[in-house]
Amino acid sequence: MANEPELNFEEAMAALEDIVAQLEHGDVPLEQAIDLFQRGMKLSQLCGLKLEQVERKIEMIVEEDGELRKKPFGATEVESGEINE
């Protein structure tokens, strides 16, 4: 994967699905299966990183006291200081 251009999320997922299908089929020689597994792990990590990047970019718009405010996607009420006791 080091010599390959960086894949976008969809390309990485498609490659990962192809690897899983090959491994599930079960007739892959052991050395090839190990190589496929290692490549699959790298693709899985790449997909996870890309999802984290997208999550950080997403902002939720919430209405608060008649005003629209932005807050990071996934922020809990505790993290954003919005718990009223």
From TrEMBL:
Q: What is its EC number?
A: 3.1.11.6
Matching entries from InterPro entries are given as: Exonuc_VII_S (IPR003761), Exonuc_VII_ssu_sf (IPR037004)
Q: What GO MF annotations does this protein's record show? A: exodeoxyribonuclease VII activity
Q: What class of enzyme is it?
A: hydrolase
Which keywords has UniProt assigned to this entry?
A: Cytoplasm, Exonuclease, Hydrolase, Nuclease
The record's listing under Gene3D superfamilies reads: Exonuclease VII, small subunit (1.10.287.1040)
Q: Where in the cell is it found?
A: Cytoplasm
Q: Name one GO cellular component term.
A: cytosol
From the UniProt record, list the reaction(s) this protein catalyses.
Exonucleolytic cleavage in either 5'- to 3'- or 3'- to 5'-direction to yield nucleoside 5'-phosphates
* Pfam families reported in the protein's UniProt record: Exonuc_VII_S
For whether the record's keyword set contains RNA-binding, the answer is no
Q: What biological process terms from GO does the record include?
A: DNA catabolic process
The record, for PANTHER family, names: EXODEOXYRIBONUCLEASE 7 SMALL SUBUNIT
| Quaternary structure and partners | Heterooligomer composed of large and small subunits.
Family that this chain belongs to: Belongs to the XseB family.
Q: What does this protein do?
A: Bidirectionally degrades single-stranded DNA into large acid-insoluble oligonucleotides, which are then degraded further into small acid-soluble oligonucleotides.
Protein name per Swiss-Prot or TrEMBL: Exodeoxyribonuclease 7 small subunit
Q: What species is this protein from?
A: Paenibacillus xylanilyticus
Q: What is the lineage of its organism?
A: Bacteria, Bacillati, Bacillota, Bacilli, Bacillales
